[in-house]
Design a protein that fits this description.
The complex is a heterodimer of chains A (206) and B (127).
Chain A (H helix, E strand, L loop, with lengths): L7 H6 L3 H25 L4 H19 L4 H29 L8 H25 L6 H16 L6 H18 L4 H23 L3
Chain B lengths: L3 H16 L15 H4 L1 H11 L4 E2 H8 L3 H13 L3 E8 L2 E8 L1 H23 L2
Helix pairs in contact in B: 3-5
The chains are: A mainly alpha (206), B alpha+beta (127).
């Protein structure tokens, strides 16, 4: 008998077949569950977040010089579409590096948990544009994106839900200070994403 | 001249054999399981590393909900068997230990899974 203690057979092998099968089933479930949790743990793309942040800073500079509120809004909507593309590509890249399935693995689950608040943001954008309440868009976007990050990253490394909470706080501030909307968008979508993105990239595998 | 990587491989193989990986089936027809990764914490480490290119000591500890000492002991056993590779370094002034699954570790997990599968089939046939 080895120092590792009792043999695998002594725990599984000397039991009746039904219990043996249940024990083996439980082991397989444990392996699958651990792999899923480990994948979700680090599926969030740090480098992707940092690039999205840089794109948001560039957009904030462009949007600050926009000739009309509609042009300002268009600049940020284009950035949102670009950022979504960057995010999806970065999640797929990180999943491939970890040899995790992109379509059925933790990466897609992370994307799916982000989807409802982002879709809500899309609907509310239409509603607020129709009502000509562009002043409420920065707060709405930051709050809903923060919600998406906080819920999507709930099972991830602590930095992700913290980023989500900070984005939500920035969004709340944007409702209180509508005149500072563009600056707060630069702070939330730009600076916060760059800082947390670099942290996650360095500490959690890219 | 002796090949140091060959010697390391032989050492790891010998440790795995001592730990019971190469145990006889005993003629019962039932598959034998790898004792090294059968233990729950070690199985957790190997499974987590199979889903990631690498993981830090702190991430593994948080994921598996174990103490520092417990994780160290089990990770070292896997390292000695050649199932995981460990890289120690510093991030700023903070020490950082990073683990990754080796090819032998990935093969051991695949073998363990197929043994579990065989065990299920064997127990169903025995009913």
């Amino acid at each position: 008998m080895s120092r590792t203690g009792h043999s695998a057979r002594s725990t599984l092998g000397q039991e009746p077949p039904a219990r043996l099968e249940a024990g083996a089933d439980e082991r397989i479930r444990y392996i699958r569950d651990t792999m899923e949790r480990a994948g979700t743990f680090t599926a969030v793309p740090g480098w992707g977040g940092a690039v999205m942040g840089v794109s948001a800073l560039v957009t904030a500079l462009v949007a600050a010089r926009a000739p009309s509120p509609e042009a300002w809004c268009r600049a940020w909507i284009v950035d949102g579409v670009v950022a979504f593309g960057i995010g999806c590509a970065a999640i797929a890249w990180k999943a491939r590096r970890a040899r995790s399935p992109v379509v059925r693995g933790p990466a897609i689950r992370f994307l799916l948990t982000l989807a409802p608040p982002l879709a809500t943001g899309g609907v509310l954008t239409g509603v607020l544009l129709t009502a000509r309440r562009i002043d409420l868009l920065p707060g709405t976007w930051l709050l809903l994106y923060g919600t998406a990050v906080a819920t999507g990253g709930a099972a991830s490394v602590p930095a992700v839900p913290i980023l989500g909470a900070l984005l939500m706080a920035t969004g709340t501030l944007a409702f209180a200070l509508p005149a500072a909307g563009n600056v707060l968008m630069a702070a939330g979508f730009g600076m916060l994403q760059i800082a947390f993105g670099l942290y996650i990239a360095r500490r959690h595998g890219g | 001249m002796a090949d140091p990587s060959g010697a390391r491989k032989r050492d790891a193989e010998s440790r795995r054999a001592k730990a019971g990986r190469i145990a006889p089936a005993g003629g019962s027809g039932m598959p034998d399981l790898d004792r090294l990764i059968h233990e729950r914490v070690r199985l957790g480490i190997v499974s987590a590393l199979a889903a990631n290119a690498s993981m830090t000591f702190a991430d593994l500890k948080r994921l598996l909900g174990v103490t520092d000492g417990n994780l160290s002991v089990h990770a070292r056993k896997l390292e000695e068997a050649g199932y995981v590779a460990c890289a120690k370094g510093f991030e700023g002034r903070v020490p950082k230990t990073e683990y990754r699954l080796t090819r032998a570790g990935r093969e051991a997990l695949e073998r363990y899974l197929s043994h579990l599968d065989a065990l299920i089939r064997w127990s169903r046939a025995g009913r």
